[in-house]
Amino acid sequence: MKIMHLSDLHLGKKLHDFSLLPDQKFILNKIIEITDEETPDCIVIAGDVYDKSVPPAEAVALFDHFISQLSERNLPVCIISGNHDSAERIAFGSKIMQKSNIYFSPVYSGKIHPVILHDEHGEIYFYLLPFISPHSVREFFEDKKISSYEDAVSSAISAMQIDTSARNILIAHQYVTGAERCDSEEIYVGNVQNVNASVFADFDYVALGHLHSPQNIGSSRIRYSGTPLKYSFSEVEHHKSVTIAEIRKKGTEPDIKEIPLVPERDMQEVRDSFQNIMKMEKSDDYTRVILRDKEPIIDAVFSLRNVFPNLMTMNYENEYKPDIKNLKYKANSEAETPLELFSDFYTQMSQESLTEDQKNFLEDIIKEIWGENYETAET
Q1: How many distinct structural domains can be found in the chain?
Q2: Which range (214-228, 332-346, 356-370) has the least confidence?
Q3: Which range, 188-202, 264-278, 290-304, is most confident?
Q4: Beta-carbon contacts of residue 353 (< 8 Å; ≥ 6 apart)
């Protein structure tokens, strides 16, 4: 069976006040094209369909159009809710949708009934496990101590009563120990969300969502498909893709293939002087600019948008944030001139010394205030 594995669509997401809905519409259309080229037997979406639990109407309409297109191709589609989704909203209308081979995970209730599909080797059982936490499962396992996410996932799997002689697929949205994270994901202190890969020992393939970089965990049997688009500048170096997992006979490792996803607008980070950047070729990519100039540039953002219309953020490479609480004030020192006092203050604030031109400029201003004998004036 050929499975197309997707996750973390984050429909409706905004980044630095830019709506990514047009980009998401573009990439979903690309996924439909890939579907027609690859002809998978099933599609799974492993959580975070939306970016917020109450998504904007435009995001809901976009997802409705996407799954309608998949339904027209008579493809079974299995979808779970992630930590960004509302489990109740994702589950709404699920019984009606099953008639069109669209299967949504229900709100977790202690038991999960598998979706059963078939191929030339027999039955394959798909278990749709929505994002769960210790709190969301504890009431269903009163005889167990559930204090961690691993306890929660382990308990939920034990209640599935899996037939290990059959082929079993798990769709889940959790953080598996050892996976590579990035800044765009929700990071928790310590290992509170960790789930050990050994918990999934009874499954022939684990289609994971939650992390944004496509990656295997230990083997091709446990895999994150990653996001279809870059959702932060920590993902600039990511290569987004669709995962195709081929499940063969029981006991064999899945064959994994990545189909690249090329966005309408990519994401880039540009690091150079203002003068050099203004000479660059115009680009519509979403851009973060880091200026190497030591002096602030007036109206830099306005000017940079002539080169990068989709400039999202700009800052300075050498930007220094002084420790205000520990500044050493010398305002009452009689041994130093006003210029020397200001020079010391400037160095503490910027971690740089005044240039000779700056000193001459300041000396002229000080003379206007204190007169020619400013060096002996009280400060």
Answers
A1: 3
A2: 332-346
A3: 264-278
A4: 343, 346, 347
Q: Which of 128, 127, 126, 131 shows the shortest CA–CA distance to 82?
A: 131
Residue 189: predicted pLDDT: 43
| Mean pLDDT in residue range 359-372 | 79
Measured in degrees and rounded to the nearest 5, phi and psi for residue 277 equal -65, -40
- CATH number, position 183: 3.60.21.10
How many Cβ atoms from other residues are within 10 Å of residue 191's Cβ? 12
Question: Which string of DSSP letters, residue by residue, matches 74-88?
Answer: T--EEEE--TTS-HH
Question: Is the pLDDT score of 48 beyond 70?
Answer: yes
Q: Residue 223 and residue 114: Cα distance in Å, rounded?
A: 20
Residue 275: give the domain boundaries: 267-316
Q: What is the CA radius of gyration of the chain?
A: 28
Pair 213, 238 in one domain: yes
Same domain, 98 and 191: yes
Q: At what angle do helices 57-72 and 21-38 cross, to 10 degrees?
A: 10
The whole-number pLDDT of residue 274 equals 96
User: Residue 245 pLDDT > 60, yes or no?
Assistant: yes
105: tokens are: 């995970």
β-pairing, 255-260 vs 267-272, is unpaired
Q: Is 218 in contact with 178 (CB distance < 8 Å)? A: yes
Which one of 212, 228, 260 terminates a domain? Answer: 260
**Integer Cα distance of 1 and 13 in angstroms:** 32
